UniProtKB/TrEMBL annotation:
<dbReference type="InterPro" id="IPR002491">
    <property type="entry name" value="ABC_transptr_periplasmic_BD"/>
</dbReference>
<comment type="subunit">
    <text>The complex is composed of two ATP-binding proteins (BtuD), two transmembrane proteins (BtuC) and a solute-binding protein (BtuF).</text>
</comment>
<dbReference type="Pfam" id="PF01497">
    <property type="entry name" value="Peripla_BP_2"/>
</dbReference>
<feature type="signal peptide">
    <location>
        <begin position="1"/>
        <end position="17"/>
    </location>
</feature>
<feature type="site" description="Important for BtuC binding">
    <location>
        <position position="202"/>
    </location>
</feature>
<dbReference type="GO" id="GO:0031419">
    <property type="term" value="F:cobalamin binding"/>
</dbReference>
<comment type="function">
    <text>Part of the ABC transporter complex BtuCDF involved in vitamin B12 import. Binds vitamin B12 and delivers it to the periplasmic surface of BtuC.</text>
</comment>
<feature type="domain" description="Fe/B12 periplasmic-binding">
    <location>
        <begin position="23"/>
        <end position="270"/>
    </location>
</feature>
<dbReference type="InterPro" id="IPR054828">
    <property type="entry name" value="Vit_B12_bind_prot"/>
</dbReference>
<dbReference type="GO" id="GO:0042597">
    <property type="term" value="C:periplasmic space"/>
</dbReference>
<keyword id="KW-0813">Transport</keyword>
<dbReference type="GO" id="GO:0071281">
    <property type="term" value="P:cellular response to iron ion"/>
</dbReference>
<dbReference type="InterPro" id="IPR023544">
    <property type="entry name" value="ABC_transptr_vit_B12-bd"/>
</dbReference>
<feature type="site" description="Important for BtuC binding">
    <location>
        <position position="72"/>
    </location>
</feature>
<keyword id="KW-1015">Disulfide bond</keyword>
<comment type="similarity">
    <text>Belongs to the BtuF family.</text>
</comment>
<keyword id="KW-0732">Signal</keyword>
Length: 274
């Protein structure tokens, strides 16, 4: 009899775990995109500021921003799944949500493959998990195609400017360094012990990057780098580019767009067509 009760308990737990999420809250822009990609879009009831893709996300109630999350409002909405950014959302507030018994799914893609894996994991909460599987497989196929295409390309040294004041960049292993390395880029600050090191203009000049990348948040087109004419190869050869920030900085299926943009620019630099 005890075996029967144990079997029933285990079966009940398994059945509950497989139930689709009907009320989902996303606490970062990238988890909002991942929710739609995995088939959870119709279940989303609230999201964070700057959750602007796809267009439907712009209509969602806002319950989080860079300052924190609205704990009372989130609890009142009674979500059965919360999507959080590990390292991006405040740990103390996330711990409170967990203590209240709310189901929190943490996303923290480190490698490009993690995007596909996360979509598949979220698909388990979707009423149509096949959408997540198809999206993840398509993403993997595109990544593999870029890997094959860029295997024997000449390495191009680059500097990625994440912010203006102070000047902050990325080290190897920190998002989105994976995009640049896939395209054959060599990060001039790749060996930095800090994930997002603060650097000076002079440190960049000493390392002589062939290419300088920025985003509208750190607009390289009107930046201080043009004051180093004659001392920076990237400036002398007009290899200073502004990238689409959302494609690059959010680990989502749209990362493919960032890869296309970066690889295309590297190709032009190698071919001397810029």
């Amino acid at each position: 009899m005890r075996f029967i009760y144990l079997f029933i308990a285990l079966f009940s737990s398994f059945s509950i775990a497989q139930q689709p999420a009907l009320r989902v809250i996303s606490l970062s822009p990238h988890t909002t995109e991942l929710a739609y990609a995995s088939g959870l879009g119709d279940a989303l009831i609230a999201a964070s500021d700057y959750s602007d893709y796809p267009e439907a996300a712009q209509k969602l109630e806002r319950v989080a921003n860079y300052r924190g999350v609205k704990l009372e409002r989130i609890v009142a909405l009674q979500p059965d799944l919360i999507l959080a950014w590990k390292g991006g959302n405040p740990p103390r507030e996330m711990a409170k949500l967990e203590q209240l018994g709310l189901n929190v799914f943490y996303s923290n893609p480190v490698e490009l493959e993690d995007i596909a894996t996360t979509i598949e994991q979220l698909g388990q909460y979707s009423p149509e998990p096949t959408q997540a599987t198809q999206t993840a497989n398509q993403f993997r196929q595109k990544i593999n195609a870029f890997k094959t295409r860029n295997e024997n390309q000449r390495t191009v040294s680059f500097f990625y400017q994440l912010s203006d004041s102070p000047i902050i960049t990325i080290a190897d292993g920190s998002w989105p360094s994976q995009v640049f390395s896939l395209c054959g880029g060599r990060n001039i600050f790749g060996d930095s012990p800090a994930a997002y090191p603060q650097v000076s203009e002079e440190q960049v000049v000493v390392r002589q990057p062939e290419v300088i990348f920025g985003t509208p948040h750190a607009d390289t087109k009107t930046s201080i780098w043009h004051n180093w004419q004659g001392k920076l190869p990237a400036v002398d050869n007009h290899h200073v580019f502004t990238l689409q920030a959302d494609w690059l900085n959010r680990p989502t299926p749209r990362t493919i767009n960032a890869i296309k943009q970066v690889c295309g620019l590297f190709d032009q630099v190698r071919d001397g067509t810029l």
